[in-house]
Amino acid sequence: MTADLQYSHPLDLHPFLLATDEHEEERSCQEDRQQAVVIMAEVEETLKRIQTHKGVIGTIVVNAEGIPIRTTLDNSTTVQYAGLLHQLTMKARSTVRDIDPQNDLTFLRIRSKKHEIMVAPDKEFLLIIIQNPNE
Amino acid sequence: MPSKIRKSAVSARKSKNKKEDFYSDMESVAESDKKEDVLLTPPSGMGSLAEYGHPDDILPMVLTSATQELFGCRADEDVTGDNPYKLLRKDDIVQDMKTRAAVSDFSPVKQIVLDYPEDEILLVFDSDFTYGQSFYLVLTPEAKERILGLPSPALEAGDEEAVEDEVSEVFVQKSPEPQPWISLGSELEIEGESVTESRSKLSYRFSRIRREFGAPVHFSDRNVADAKDGFIECTPYQDPNFSIKQMERHCGVQAISTVQSSSTQTQWKYPKNMCTQYEPREFSEEEKERLLQSENLKNFINSVASRFDIAIQQNEIMDVFFDDLKALSEEDSGFGGKTDTHLKEYQSFTDLNYSKEKTISDIKWHPTINGVIAVAMTERVSFEERIDHSTKLLLNPSLILFWSFSDPINPQLLLECPDDVFAFEFCPSDPNIIVGGCMNGQVVLWDISAHSERLLGMQAGSGKNTSVNAHAFKDFEEKRESETPVVRYSAVSAIENSHKAPITDVQWLPETFEVTRMGVPVENNNNVCVQLVTCAPDCCVMFWDIRASQRVTPVTDRKQRVDEKILENPHGVPETFRHLDLIWKPLVRVALPKIDNSGEYSPLKFSLEDNSCDSHTGSNADRAHLHAERSEVAPEYGLLRAPSAKTLKPLEDINTKLYVGTEEGGLVYTDWKLEKDNDTGRLHSTKPTHCFNVHDGPVNTVRRSPFFKDIVLTVGGWTFAIWKEGVTVGPVMRSSCSQEMCTVGYWSQSRPAVFFIGTEDGNVEVWDLLEKSHEPSQVQNVSPVKITCIKPCIVSSKQHLLAASDELGTLHILEIPWTLRRPSSNEKLSMSKYFEKDVDRLLYFSKRKKMQAQEKRHMEAEEIRKKTEAIVPEKSLEQMEQEISKEYDDYCSLEEAILRDMALPSDTLNSTSDLSLFFLQSSSHTHAHMHTYTHNRTL
Q1: CA B321, CA B23: separation in Å to the nearest integer?
Q2: Which residues of B touch A107 (CB under 8 A)?
Q3: A interface mutation test: which of B285, B286, B291, B323 has the most A CBs within 10 A?
Q4: pTM
Q5: A66 to chain B: closest CA residue
Q6: Exposure string (b/e) for B370-401, b if CB count within 10 Å is 16 or more?
Q7: B504 contacts B535 by C-beta, under 8 angstroms
Q8: Choice among B15-29, B194-208, B448-462, B712-726 with the minimum mean pLDDT
Q9: What pLDDT, on a 0 to 100 scale, did the predictor assign at position B793?
Q10: Cα-Cα-Cα-Cα dihedral of B887, B888, B890, B891, to 10°?
């Protein structure tokens, strides 16, 4: 698997060094990969745990710009939720910060007739969960 | 005056520090003028000028002292060398010359003075004798002006030279420098000079007819004198406005910084409609993967997950926003006060003439007009009486009365029937079309469109004074008031092709489909109801089409008909259904063969799918709206033609099943679609699928629930039953026999669980299946005699009415209380569950019954077999003991063998055998082995 990987190096490196370097890098890359897989599994597990709760309709992970990363809903719904809730959360966040600059928004719950939408904002990501509380 | 300007520029330069603006320039000009004035005065050192003699326009003269005194110009007293000027009035001089004649000093200049154009003549004291005399007289106004105000050209020239000398000394070429504006008040003057609008601008508009633009013009000669004002003369004249002498002119110059004016224009583009679409930004799979694998995301998810857990769990545990108070009030409604639960009498209708000795056979609410109800009156006589009085009855036709809530005394409309009508129905597409089924088996059609205004008017207004244009048609109105219009039927079916028994039920087919001659349901292109179904106890159900057949009736026939029409149209019968009158035949005749033997069922009532639900579901307003929508496209019924059956698409998904309540008290479930006989190729009616005999009297009601398409209520004899379409084992619910005969039943239009049953003793029973099903939840007496018909109606959300008629011909309108009209929050769901449960029960019992029967059969077989089986001889006690001891021995030996295999010592062997004995007493063999094994292991 690692044999397929291609690495680019500065040309002025010594061939010998290059060889060892490659070896080491290969190993570290492998480690990184393993670690990444572990992280991903952990994330997946947490999200799955939330998803299994009663009445949870969907889970969306959105980046700071409002672009969905991971979702359990269909594409159009996800895009709509991600875009709109991102805006709303940013507005809510700025409101909280304007009132007290040392404060910050940590959690946003929107209760509608049909659902409850929960948003947790962070520096880099946004987690949106939609729940039907009447279920 | 270029020199002057230059001079002023110089002076401006000189006085640069003090006065710089334009105004100061002006002042300096005035100043230099004064200097010139000074120069003008004869200077003392300029005696050389006298050599030139005096100019032509002055006259040196000598004035005597007397003259000097007279004119106030005594030398060195009144006039001096500094102030040499004296203006003499011309009139004074003339007067002086007249009084003193030749003595006057002015006599030499008499003519000049007389010719002098102005009033005052200037006299100058020439103290230095410049012109040779002590005085000189200025002879022309020009000279006077020059001497008084302007410098003489000679002096000016000299002056100029002097100035030029000055300039050459000081002048250095340099561009004027801009100076900041210092206001000295001049801007007010400038402002005053500027033109401002004091009134609105006048605007003129000239117009011309469009077609006259560019039209060719024809000119021709004519005499000027021919027409008055034929010409306008423009004579030349002196315009005084053009000879105004300019007296004064202000001008000023100021240096400002360089100003540049420029303009630019953008290019005009043609405006275009544009739209922008956004595409949501999305990550590619790789990017998503990368982000999902990032440490940051993991940290984020882990940090926020707990918050979500808490929030989600909160919602799971209980709904925080649940409105307990609202739920409480809803609960409350079920146990409302007693007063609110009863049916209240709202109005009752009875007519002295028409209701006398009659009974009401059918009631129908007007489908679109609120508060209008139609009732069919029939004779209250037995069969024998009817035969006895047949002639009397013929003369006295039976009627359908239209009652309006606004007039409880007089019916609004009377429909004349050929015979007693037992069932009638408004057309769902056009409420002005009414179909009725007669006692003699004929089907009757009425068209009341001519009177719909009247019904509407009565409904809109209250009391007698109704129509908006009442006064306009007062006579007409009064006539109408006094006499209720009688509408004659517009068509009646051919008696030979009609039912052979009284028609007991009539219904319109829904507008979604129609039936062909072959009895096949096909699509309906007209989208209006054109077909109807009737049934009578002559063992058949008939389908009728109200449209004219496609075949054109022969012309002769038509002519004949026209003659007939002329002869007999005294009733003003509408022509809508003339094409059907007396020749109307049923489209399809469906017989009802008995399921098990020959013979046929005699139907009384029937129910088609979709059909019973349309009578009064939804509010009337909705229906009115629907009707209004339809009426826009509603075709004339008289013009409708039956299309060829071949062109129409057959519909497969139409439910052609029919519930028929029979005279014997049974309910037959059959298919009205005709079946082709394989042998003969002829169409014949199918055998019914099911038939149940549940009622102990004729079935008088077969009604589908307005909320469940597959739930049917039947009433007959002393019982009622509820059926579910598709359940073939029997009724879902069947009441016990009541005290009184049930005469009629009808579902509530607003509550799925409620229906009304009318009984023979005049009671109306309200059944609420969700409250109790063994007895009515409420019984109320309405009339002392039999209830013949019940029809609920939703007038508005606040008012639900129930019409109940009795045998004496009285129509009672009852108001349905709040508890009976308002459904509980999920009544429909509970009802469907209720029915489901009952169906399950029913299926279970039928299965049980089958199983029991099977079991019974099985048991019987068993018993028979047992009986036949040989009796086994009993074993002796010793034999049994022997067997037991043998079994025990076998076991002991087996146990020993096992223990030996495990190489256990003999003493333990004994103890284990004891133990195992203990186990043996309580357990089976294998069990004991298991335990021994475990025991050994522990040892």
Answers
A1: 85
A2: 304, 307, 311
A3: B291
A4: 0.51
A5: B281
A6: bbbbbbbbbbbbeeeeeeeeeeebeeeebbbb
A7: yes
A8: B15-29
A9: 87
A10: 120
